[in-house]
Amino acid sequence: TASPTKQPTPEPTRSPSLTPTAPTAAPTSVPSTTTKAPVTELPTTSPKPTGPPVIPPDDPRHSYWCGNSWADVTENCHYPCTSGQDEECPDKKMTCFAFTSCRPPAKETDPPTVIPTIPPDPTKHAISAPPTTNPPSQAKKTTMSPAALTISIQTLRPTSIS
Questions:
Q1: Structural contact between residues 100 and 65, judged by C-beta atoms closer than 8 angstroms
Q2: pTM assigned to the model
Q3: How far apart are alpha carbons 69 and 17 in whole angstroms?
Q4: CB burial string 14-30: b at 16+ within 10 A, e below
Q5: What percentage of the chain has pLDDT greater than the value 70?
Q6: How far apart are CA 121 and CA 126, in angstroms?
Q7: Sequence-distant (≥ 6) Cβ neighbours of residue 74 within 8 angstroms
Q8: How many other β-carbons are positioned within 10 Å of the β-carbon of residue 102?
């Protein structure tokens, strides 16, 4: 540009200023390694941790259960210990037994419906919206009067075929 966008700073003076100024750090030949985290208006958050891995229902680890003896485990099924380690048992007197007949309870599902629901077959008729009793507001209105549709009987008279 032909002219500066800011006013230039005044030339330094040889005499000291009337009010003292804060000293500045002398430049160094080594760059600074101190960095500061960016400042944000809202606190930063980390993503939520993922849950524990889901063990498939047919995995043998579901048969690992805590008990005081084999008979106690098979009769009571106290606590599961899917890791196979005794430390997983809440009662330190118990042992983790593998391949028991115990299994975790089944997860609850929705109650069955009265009428079976069958998903629509996409290869057949598409399901359309139900008919409405009110026509859309943008529908064209009839502009022809019923009188214009009157047909003369003479035009419908049969003719003789020779």
A1: yes
A2: 0.37
A3: 91
A4: eeeeeeeeeeeeeeeee
A5: 69
A6: 8
A7: 67, 100, 101, 102
A8: 20
Tell me if 133 sits within 8 A of 106, measured CB to CB. Answer: no
DSSP string, the chain: --S-SSPPPPPPPSSPPSS-----PPP-SSPP----PPP-SSPP-PPPPP-PPPPPTT-GGGG-EEESSHHHHHHH--EE-TT--GGGSSSTT-EEESS-S--PPPPP-PPPPSS------TTSPPP-PPP-SS--TTPPPP-S-GGGG---GGGG------
Paired tokens of 156: 């419908």
Contacts of 70 (CB under 8 A, 6+ apart): 97, 100
Yes or no: say if 77 and 63 are a contact pair by the CB < 8 Å rule: no
| Averaged pLDDT for residues 112-141 | 67
| Separation between Cα atoms, residue 82 and residue 41, nearest integer Å | 45
CB count within 10 Å of CB 81 equals: 22
Burial (CB count within 10 angstroms: exposed 0-12, middle 13-18, buried 19+), residue 64: buried
Residue-wise pLDDT for 48-90, tens only, equals 888 777 888 788 888 999 999 999 999 999 999 999 999 999 9
Look-up of token digits 């003789």: 160
If you count them, how many residues does the chain have? 162
